[in-house]
Protein backbone atom coordinates (compact mmCIF):
# COMPACT_ATOMS: atom_id res chain seq x y z
CA UNK A 1 0.00 0.00 0.00
CA UNK A 2 1.32 3.45 -0.89
CA UNK A 3 0.52 6.60 1.04
CA UNK A 4 0.62 9.87 -0.79
CA UNK A 5 0.20 13.32 0.77
CA UNK A 6 -0.26 16.17 -1.68
CA UNK A 7 -2.01 18.74 0.51
CA UNK A 8 -0.16 21.89 1.58
CA UNK A 9 0.82 22.05 5.25
CA UNK A 10 -1.79 23.39 7.70
CA UNK A 11 -1.58 27.01 8.81
CA UNK A 12 0.10 26.04 12.06
CA UNK A 13 2.84 24.21 10.17
CA UNK A 14 3.31 27.17 7.85
CA UNK A 15 3.72 29.54 10.83
CA UNK A 16 6.11 27.08 12.45
CA UNK A 17 8.14 26.84 9.27
CA UNK A 18 8.31 30.64 9.02
CA UNK A 19 9.55 30.86 12.60
CA UNK A 20 12.16 28.17 12.00
CA UNK A 21 13.50 29.92 8.92
CA UNK A 22 14.25 33.04 10.96
CA UNK A 23 16.10 31.01 13.58
CA UNK A 24 18.34 29.12 11.22
CA UNK A 25 19.04 25.48 10.58
CA UNK A 26 21.58 23.16 12.04
CA UNK A 27 24.80 23.16 10.07
CA UNK A 28 24.00 26.44 8.30
CA UNK A 29 26.70 29.11 8.39
CA UNK A 30 26.10 31.74 11.03
CA UNK A 31 26.71 35.31 10.06
CA UNK A 32 25.21 36.90 13.18
CA UNK A 33 25.38 35.93 16.85
CA UNK A 34 22.43 34.14 18.33
CA UNK A 35 20.72 36.17 21.02
CA UNK A 36 19.71 34.43 24.23
CA UNK A 37 16.10 34.55 25.26
CA UNK A 38 15.78 36.67 28.39
CA UNK A 39 14.69 34.67 31.43
CA UNK A 40 11.28 35.87 32.53
CA UNK A 41 9.69 34.02 35.42
CA UNK A 42 6.64 35.64 36.85
CA UNK A 43 3.94 34.55 39.26
CA UNK A 44 0.58 36.27 39.32
CA UNK A 45 -1.65 35.46 42.27
CA UNK A 46 -5.41 35.46 41.99
CA UNK A 47 -7.51 37.42 44.43
CA UNK A 48 -8.32 34.19 46.25
CA UNK A 49 -4.63 33.33 46.63
CA UNK A 50 -3.86 36.80 47.92
CA UNK A 51 -6.73 36.43 50.40
CA UNK A 52 -5.33 33.11 51.61
CA UNK A 53 -1.91 34.65 52.06
CA UNK A 54 -3.41 37.52 54.08
CA UNK A 55 -5.34 35.02 56.23
CA UNK A 56 -2.13 33.06 56.81
CA UNK A 57 -0.35 36.23 57.94
CA UNK A 58 -3.27 37.08 60.26
CA UNK A 59 -3.27 33.60 61.78
CA UNK A 60 0.50 33.70 62.26
CA UNK A 61 0.27 36.94 64.24
CA UNK A 62 -2.92 36.05 66.17
CA UNK A 63 -2.64 35.07 69.79
CA UNK A 64 -2.74 31.32 70.34
CA UNK A 65 -6.29 30.17 71.01
CA UNK A 66 -5.70 26.43 71.21
CA UNK A 67 -7.06 24.66 74.26
CA UNK A 68 -4.34 22.04 74.69
CA UNK A 69 -6.26 20.27 77.46
CA UNK A 70 -9.17 19.71 75.05
CA UNK A 71 -6.79 18.63 72.27
CA UNK A 72 -5.14 16.08 74.57
CA UNK A 73 -8.53 14.80 75.78
CA UNK A 74 -9.69 14.31 72.16
CA UNK A 75 -6.44 12.52 71.26
CA UNK A 76 -6.89 10.17 74.21
CA UNK A 77 -10.55 9.49 73.30
CA UNK A 78 -9.58 8.71 69.69
CA UNK A 79 -6.72 6.46 70.85
CA UNK A 80 -8.89 4.41 73.23
CA UNK A 81 -11.85 4.23 70.83
CA UNK A 82 -14.31 6.14 72.98
CA UNK A 83 -14.62 9.16 70.63
CA UNK A 84 -17.97 9.19 68.79
CA UNK A 85 -18.97 11.43 65.90
CA UNK A 86 -22.48 12.93 65.96
CA UNK A 87 -23.43 12.68 62.27
CA UNK A 88 -26.42 15.03 62.63
CA UNK A 89 -24.24 17.79 64.10
CA UNK A 90 -21.61 17.35 61.38
CA UNK A 91 -24.28 17.49 58.64
CA UNK A 92 -25.92 20.59 60.17
CA UNK A 93 -22.60 22.42 60.37
CA UNK A 94 -21.65 21.42 56.81
CA UNK A 95 -24.95 22.81 55.52
CA UNK A 96 -24.37 25.99 57.50
CA UNK A 97 -20.94 26.38 55.96
CA UNK A 98 -22.40 25.81 52.51
CA UNK A 99 -24.95 28.58 53.11
CA UNK A 100 -22.16 30.93 54.23
CA UNK A 101 -20.10 30.13 51.13
CA UNK A 102 -23.05 30.87 48.83
CA UNK A 103 -23.02 34.45 50.09
CA UNK A 104 -19.32 34.94 49.36
UniProtKB/TrEMBL annotation:
<comment type="function">
    <text>Responsible for the coupling of flagellin expression to flagellar assembly by preventing expression of the flagellin genes when a component of the middle class of proteins is defective. It negatively regulates flagellar genes by inhibiting the activity of FliA by directly binding to FliA.</text>
</comment>
<dbReference type="Pfam" id="PF04316">
    <property type="entry name" value="FlgM"/>
</dbReference>
<keyword id="KW-0804">Transcription</keyword>
<dbReference type="GO" id="GO:0045892">
    <property type="term" value="P:negative regulation of DNA-templated transcription"/>
</dbReference>
<keyword id="KW-0678">Repressor</keyword>
<comment type="similarity">
    <text>Belongs to the FlgM family.</text>
</comment>
<keyword id="KW-0805">Transcription regulation</keyword>
<feature type="domain" description="Anti-sigma-28 factor FlgM C-terminal">
    <location>
        <begin position="41"/>
        <end position="95"/>
    </location>
</feature>
<keyword id="KW-0282">Flagellum</keyword>
<dbReference type="InterPro" id="IPR031316">
    <property type="entry name" value="FlgM_C"/>
</dbReference>
<dbReference type="InterPro" id="IPR035890">
    <property type="entry name" value="Anti-sigma-28_factor_FlgM_sf"/>
</dbReference>
<feature type="region of interest" description="Disordered">
    <location>
        <begin position="1"/>
        <end position="35"/>
    </location>
</feature>
<keyword id="KW-0969">Cilium</keyword>
<keyword id="KW-1005">Bacterial flagellum biogenesis</keyword>
<dbReference type="GO" id="GO:0044781">
    <property type="term" value="P:bacterial-type flagellum organization"/>
</dbReference>
<dbReference type="InterPro" id="IPR007412">
    <property type="entry name" value="FlgM"/>
</dbReference>
<keyword id="KW-0966">Cell projection</keyword>
<protein>
    <recommendedName>
        <fullName>Negative regulator of flagellin synthesis</fullName>
    </recommendedName>
</protein>
Amino acid sequence: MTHRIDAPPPAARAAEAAAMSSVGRAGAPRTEPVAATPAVDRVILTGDAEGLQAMGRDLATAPPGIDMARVNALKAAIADGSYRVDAATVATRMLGLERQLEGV
